[in-house]
Amino acid sequence: MATAERLEKRKAQQRWTDRTGFLVERDVMVGAYSVRRLKESFKVSDNLVNRAWPVRIHEPSGPAPDVQNNHKFWDLYDLEKGRDAELSLTNVCNQVIHSWIWGFAAGEDGSGLDGIFVSSDKKRKKCLYFLSIDMLVDLFRSVGEEDIYHIEMRRDETGEMKFTRIVGRRFGEARADTFELPDALK
Question: What is the pLDDT of residues 81-114, one digit of tens each?
Fold first, then answer.
C-alpha cells in the first residue's frame, strides 16, 4: 500500500534528482517482486492473477539493444507509435524484475512521472513496454488491499495437494457469496 501511495505522489512531483530516480526504481522493483512472491505463495486471488493489465508496446526501430546502447532506448524503439496490449500479473512483474532496459517517462511538460519503459532480457529484441504509473499503482494497491477469504485445494493424480481456487475481496467489502464447511470438517 505504501508503495502505491509513494508512486501516486510522483505523478505530480516537479523536482527530480538521481535519488528520486533510485527511490522510484526501488519502489517499482520491490513492489513487483513482492507481488510475484505473493502470487507464487498463493496469496493473491484468481481474479487478480487472471486480470489483464493494460500496457503499451513499442516495436524496435533500429538495431537490437545491447550493452553499449540500452540506455538510449528512445533511439532503438518507435516511441511515437505504439499499440495497446494487456499482460498478465506475472508478466508485468517479470518485465520489471528482469528489466534489461529501464527508463522513466515524464509528463508533456517534463515534470511528473507518467510511467516507466521496461523490457526484459528475453523481450528486448522484440518490444519495449510502457507501464503507466496509474496501472502500477492500481496493481500494487489491488494486491495490497486484498483479503483472501476462501481457498479450495485438491490432490492431483500423484497425490500432491494443489490449489484449485483462491477467492479474495478488498478489505471491508462484503463477500459476494458464502461458503459452508462440509459436514466432515464441522
Answer: 999 999 999 999 999 999 999 998 887 666 688 9
pTM: 0.85
The SS3 assignment for 175 reads coil
For residue 92, give every residue at least 6 positions away whose Cβ sits within 8 Å of its Cβ, in sequence order, or none. 32, 53, 55, 131, 135, 139
* C-alpha cell recorded at residue 56: 503499451
Neighbours of 110 (CB within 10 A): 8
Cβ atoms of residues 112 and 14 within 8 Å: yes
Q: CA angle 11-32-72, nearest 5°?
A: 65
Query: Terminal CA-to-CA distance of the chain, rounded, Å?
Result: 36
What are the residues facing 132 on neighbouring strands? 115
Distance, in Å, from the CA atom of 89 to the CA atom of 186, rounded to the nearest integer, reads 36
Distance CA 119, CA 70 (A): 10
Strand-strand pairing, 161-170 and 146-155 = antiparallel
Give the separation between CA 149 and CA 161, rounded to whole angstroms.
Answer: 19
- Write the pLDDT tens digit of every residue in 13-63: 888 888 988 999 999 999 999 999 999 999 999 999 999 999 999 999 988
Per-residue CA distances from 134 to 12, 30, 49, 127, 152 (Å) = 12, 17, 18, 21, 32
